[in-house]
Amino acid sequence: MTQATMEKVTEVNNGVNVEALLGAREALEAAPEAAQFKWRTTCDWVNGTHSRSTVDGFFGLGEEQGRSKSFTVEADHPEQFAAEDNAPTPAELALTGLASCLMGGLAAVAQHRGIQLYSVRATVEGDMDLQGIMGIDDDVRNGFGTIRVTFDVNADATEDEIKALVAQSQKRSAIFDAITNPTNVIVEVN
Question: Shortest CA distance to 90 belongs to which of 58, 57, 55, 126?
């Protein structure tokens, strides 16, 4: 541990506006109907297994919400699957979503609890038996069998405080919830 990590930081700045978050929470408690959000993405086929998704708006706070800019996310498969390896696989993007959601929560909780973060890395690894996806064995699940998330946190906090940050982030993570609990998914064709 460095000297900086051993000394208490007087002003914590992890880049999270906790006051605004708490204000939003109070507003949503007063008007729960405004808490109903619809996140969306539009995915277009590029070629082969390569696709490009665009994120540029959502529904929330009772109305359509625009964003200051659009975001694109590409997905593909590696050459080992007879693809061109133009981007991460959808499975890797799912793991990225989980890591990002847990990371954002950890930063917000740390800010709220007055814990200065110096560095945080989450390594996420998912086990998958491809016999399911490839149609080799119908008894093998298509998705992940196990996902492991390992945090390496350097912060102005004790080991127990860091474990509590991670636990609270996990407890409130939308993506952790979506991965670990059944979610209704409706697929339609227009």
Answer: 126
